[in-house]
């Protein structure tokens, strides 16, 4: 028996009203959420909505049955946006993207290598102090490790240590590799600080919407708080591979410069 069409419509409405800018899922995707309840009563709509939202944001945008076809056609990168020969343009539509890579341009690659090696040893540095770090991940599952406070340390010092390790300081500038639902890729560059964009905060596979009117220069989208909405999410397999391979990639880049 197919899912109740009225319930499917209610679920779609609930998703789009409770999470502004969320990409519109396909009817096939919604059916997968409701299929287990064709022969038994479904949970409350709020529970179904939370389940659908989590599953949507943790999926690959390019999956053929994930998003509504009409939504895809109106929320992918316009062809001109990825052209490196176009000096200046603006997006003529909202574009839904997922994060494939993030790099902190405010820190040298060698400095980032040292930070990651310190994490592997279970410690971080603040000035000349060594701050021991717990092995477990934080409760949010972001892979950022907590700080074990020494008696003389303050919470501010712990926060500074975490910022040093993650590269998530207020003045940091990040470059992202972004991908739309058709698989087109484009660089994103922080023109002004976007709060949720930082290594240790932003996940690989996380979804965002870059709003109509955002500036594009030579195939790079300029990211600003007013034009960039970070929706959340994570593609677990991608994020795990990115974290595990990041140190090796940075070392390779450093060695390449030195040759």
Structure commentary:
The chain has 259 residues and is of the alpha+beta class. Among the domains are: 54 residues; 121 residues, RecQ-mediated genome instability protein Rmi1, C-terminal domain (OB fold (Dihydrolipoamide Acetyltransferase, E2P)), CATH 2.40.50.770. 34% of the residues lie in helices and 22% in strands. The protein contains seven helices and eleven strands. It has an eight-stranded mixed sheet with strand order 1-9-10-7-6-2-8-11, with no helix packed on it. A hairpin with a 2-residue loop joins β9 and β10. α2 packs across α3. About 16% of the residues have low confidence.
List the helices and strands and how they pair.
Blueprint: H1 5-18, H2 27-34, H3 45-57, H4 69-74, E1 89-90, E2 95-104, H5 109-120, E3 123-126, E4 129-137, E5 145-147, H6 155-166, E6 174-179, E7 185-190, E8 207-210, E9 215-217, E10 220-223, E11 228-232, H7 236-258
Parallel strand pairs: 7-10
Antiparallel strand pairs: 1-9, 2-6, 2-8, 3-4, 4-5, 6-7, 8-11, 9-10
Task: Summarize the entry for a quick read.
The protein is of the alpha+beta class and 259 residues long. 34% of the residues lie in helices and 22% in strands. It contains 7 helices and 11 strands.
């Amino acid at each position: 028996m197919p899912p109740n069409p009225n319930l499917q419509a209610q679920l779609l409405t609930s998703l789009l009203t409770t999470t502004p800018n969320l990409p519109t899922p396909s009817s096939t995707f919604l059916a997968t959420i409701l299929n287990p309840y064709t022969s038994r009563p479904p949970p409350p709509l709020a529970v179904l909505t939370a389940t659908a939202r989590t599953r949507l944001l943790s999926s690959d945008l390019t999956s053929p049955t994930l998003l509504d076809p009409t939504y895809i056609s109106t929320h992918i990168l316009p062809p001109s946006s990825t052209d490196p020969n176009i000096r200046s343009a603006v997006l003529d539509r909202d574009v839904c993207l997922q994060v494939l890579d993030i790099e902190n341009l405010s820190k040298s690659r060698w400095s980032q290598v040292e930070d990651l090696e310190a994490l592997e040893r279970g410690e971080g540095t603040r000035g000349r102090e060594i701050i021991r770090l717990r092995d477990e991940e934080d409760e949010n599952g972001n892979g950022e490790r907590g700080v074990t406070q020494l008696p003389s340390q303050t919470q501010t010092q712990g926060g500074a240590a975490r910022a040093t390790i993650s590269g998530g300081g207020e003045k940091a500038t990040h470059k992202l590799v972004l991908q739309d639902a058709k698989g087109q890729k484009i660089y994103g560059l922080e023109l002004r600080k976007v709060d949720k964009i930082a290594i240790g905060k932003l996940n690989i596979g996380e979804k965002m919407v870059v709003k109509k009117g955002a500036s594009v220069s030579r195939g790079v989208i300029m990211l600003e708080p007013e034009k960039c909405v970070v929706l959340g999410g994570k593609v677990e397999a991608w994020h795990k591979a990115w974290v595990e391979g990041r140190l090796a990639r940075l070392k390779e880049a450093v060695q390449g410069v030195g040759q």
